[in-house]
Automatic annotation (TrEMBL):
InterPro entries: 4Fe4S_Fe-S-bd (IPR017896), 4Fe4S_Fe_S_CS (IPR017900), PSI_iron-sulfur_center (IPR050157). GO terms for molecular function: 4 iron, 4 sulfur cluster binding; metal ion binding. This is Ferredoxin. PROSITE patterns: 4FE4S_FER_1, 4FE4S_FER_2. Keywords: 4Fe-4S, Iron, Iron-sulfur, Metal-binding. Transmembrane segments: none annotated. It comes from the Bacteria. It comes from Hydrogenophaga taeniospiralis CCUG 15921. One of its GO terms (cellular component) is cytoplasm.
Length: 77
């Protein structure tokens, strides 16, 4: 899988201000069947590590603070 180079242009974007990974949350990382999300150990926030996505949505739906946004491409809507 390709490592995500520009996090703001990845299919899944995490709002650092809302993410509570620094308080121990790993929900989005745990629910992703592709294992493409990870916790940035420097910032202690979740991010899309690998630029690949099934657009299955549990990361966005299960995030307790609404920090995850999945940008669904027009063609798979
Ligand atoms: S589920 Fe939400 S709050 Fe928890 S680590 Fe992921 S983005 Fe952060
Ligand atoms: S939409 Fe699915 S595949 Fe994509 S990051 Fe979220 S849980 Fe993982």
């Amino acid at each position: 899988m390709t490592i995500t180079t520009t996090r703001t242009q990845a299919p899944v974007v995490v709002d650092d201000d809302k993410c509570i990974a620094d308080k121990g949350c790993t929900v989005c990382v745990d629910v992703c069947p592709l294992d493409v999300l990870a916790i940035d150990l420097v910032k202690n926030k979740a991010f899309m590590k690998f630029d690949e996505c099934w657009y299955c949505m549990p990361c966005e739906k299960d995030c307790p603070t609404g920090a995850v946004h999945v940008n669904i491409p027009y063609l798979v809507r």
